[in-house]
Task: structure prediction
Amino acid sequence: MRDFKRLLGYLGPYRRDMALGALLVLVESAFELFIPVLMSDIIDVGVANRDVVFILHKGVQMGICAILALATGLLYARFAARAAYGWGARIREAQFARVQDYAFSNLDHFETSSLVTRMTTDVTVIQNAVNGGLRPLARAPVLLVMGVGLSVWMNARLALVFLVCTPILAVILFCIVRKVGPMYAPLQKAVDRLNNVVQEGLTAIRAVKAFVRGESENEKFAAVNEELAAASQKTFHYAVLNLPAFQLVMYTSTVLFMWFGGNMILGGSLQVGDLTGVLSYVLQVMNSLMMLSNVFLLLTRSLASARRIVEVLDEEIVLTSPENGAAEVPDGGIDFENVSFKYHAGAKEYALSGVTLHIPAGQTVGILGGTGSAKTTLVQLIPRLYDATEGAVKVAGRDVREYELHALRDAVGIVLQKNVLFSGTVRENLKWGSPDATDQELWAACKAACADEFLERMPRGLDTDLGQGGVNVSGGQKQRLCIARTLLKRPKVLIFDDSTSAVDTATEARIRAALTALPGVTKLIIAQRITSVMNTDQIIILEDGRVHAVGTHESLLASDPIYQEIYASQMKGGDAHGGPAAQCKKA
Result:
């Protein structure tokens, strides 16, 4: 319940709508509760005395009560919808903003599909709890208390039936809610797993078709779909028991009221109108208990969703800007001082161990190493996508943890290993690098990245629509657009994480030449091809998360066996001692 109360803090301006909605429900209930009293008078006075004027007078009063109840009900629906959906929108905004502040290590705690579910399905559950539960939550206690009170006022002896039937129904509904409550959390996790399979299948649809794995993916989806169906059936199998329980007690109480009330009428101690009025209150009291049970079911499910939402909001941000942090990065000099890093505190081994490097501002540095040698991990520490576990990473002679995050990351341009383009035009994607860039600046960046040669062939040029995720361009074209986007940032440090792997060697050479012309920019190039780094100022070779060697192409070729093997395999075609097999063994 504490999580739900926490989320109520996001109501903001919608508190007024919720309060007005609850007030209107109370007014509506009062009008409805007055109708059985008028009905009793019509039967006992108007019908008994055949007084048509009295019947019409009371009928008009009943009609006015009904119209007023309808009007207040419609107003309630308006305010409740505004409160529920406005609240839900604010919760989603808060979750999305929180996720934007996450470090990579925070994102590692959640699956992407789970975050999507928490921002959509779980928020919808909260909205439904308010939209569908506010009315009965405010209405049911009023109907229950006033219904029992008015029935006692009309005939206390007959109202004793409530003392038997009401507790029985309350106990049955309590047992149902207690049984169903713990089932909602596993149900939402089943939704997570389903969304994960759907997201993965749609994202990798081209690979699925290329490997003819459609049938396998169908089986995988069928398994999680069946799991969700089974969890839903088990949960709602018990949840729907409240309706037959309500009907059983309601009809039993109705029979008892008719039996005892009929005998009292025959004995002359009860009038027909009073029995009719009491029966109306019976239905209202039982209906109020039924509504309360539905509210508890909605609330129980919403508590499970609220807990999942609060987990996102309460996730402790690992990386934050320091107080009075440096707001400007003077240059692109980089130093690693005995840096070690592991992704999880409980991990037994370090991904990086004892790394010490000095990269002067403006240098071009190549980084080589086998798969799993922590090349990407190394460069991710520079813009503080992760923080070093031990040691210090410095930019311009200052520890990166002393900079404002925005200032640091604005000074570091990184083209990630996995190229990401967004839905929209080429222009919209490029302006991620510089929102105020002119067309001339956009074309200059595209020319430096060799993206102009294919953009000029497109009918709409910079206004070409890329489709979702850039599906309308090839892998090499994606890479060049991502490079152009990063160049527009005009960073002090430029990192290419294997960012030219999909372009041909001639195009790569032209891109390297354009990068060389960038004055004062420190360039780090992670590559698999030795031709990508052989002309750099220095080359860093990583092996198993450690710095194996640092030097120029000439010095490493003369003295380092790993570099010699890479060179032999790529430049000379490989041999028994320096071919790909030997390289893989070393890496």
In short: The chain is about 60% helix and 10% strand. The chain has three domains: 2-314, 334-551, 552-587. The longest strand covers residues 334-341.
